[in-house]
Amino acid sequence: xxxxxxxxxxxxxxxxxxxxxxxxxxxxxxxxxxxxxxxxxxxxxxxxxxxxxxxxxxxxxxxxxxxxxxxxxxxxxxxxxxxxxxxxxxxxxxxxxxxxxxxxxxxxxxxxxxxxxxxxxxxxxxxxxxxxxxxxxxxxxxxxxxxxxxxxxxxxxxxxxxxxxxxxxxxxxxxxxxxxxxxxxxxxxxxxxxxxxxxxxxxxxxxxxxxxxxxxxxxxxxxxxxxxxxxxxxxxxxxxxxxxxxxxxxxxxxxxxxxxxxxxxxxxxxxxxxxxxxxxxxxxxxxxxxxxxxx
Length: 295
Known about the structure:
Number of strands: 8
Distance between the termini: 36 Å
Shape: elongated
Strand order of the largest sheet: 5-6-7-8
Largest sheet: 4 strands, antiparallel
Helix content: 25-40%
Radius of gyration: 26 Å
Number of domains: 3
Strand content: 15-25%
Order of helices and strands: HHHHEHEEHHEEEEEHHH
């Protein structure tokens, strides 16, 4: 039988307590089941003041473990707004008697079944006049073409508690606009998922997305798994990059603001500290932190 690691803390203690309490368990019940030692210890667990030793809460995890995993899963998505012209897309538009045309190398190319139409393959719809194409489609008596111009989506589900979130905002005359967000999930297997997200923009414009579904305005910029050591290095590298380069977003261009890193230097400088603080608060070991402890 494997030896019990009595020093290992359960990092989702507060969420586990919340689920158990919502199921009708009292602090007295939890104390008795987990052999916490006293009700005051359970109270600290419930308020998130202390993390419970993992071996102590195993009886609760047998009951509520599945609920924990469901509640800690989060759905993200990536949006592809620039539709690529393929032969399949050309054929679909032809069903609606709408033909693509665009100017390439100074020559107007119309998709009419001739060999020249092949030159449009691989191009992007906005590059050949999206508004003109939409106008032609609307003049058609048929419906169903709308889906051909609709953005495509890639959905990614990450299962594991969020242990860190850092948002970069752009100060304007009107308000602070959130434009970039860094999120870290603990995948519970010694790995972590780093999700970098950018604020979405309206299709065909530079206006930031707004929605009653707050999570929906954020699109995946990059997502990758790391071990803890590599994750700390990646956070530091990302912070340094933002500190020097900022973000090249359409929104910044549309407001005639320099692409320099000036609006984001403060948050980029703070992010390595904030990440390490979050790791320590969640019970992870962090190298390079000096401990000043009482004798």
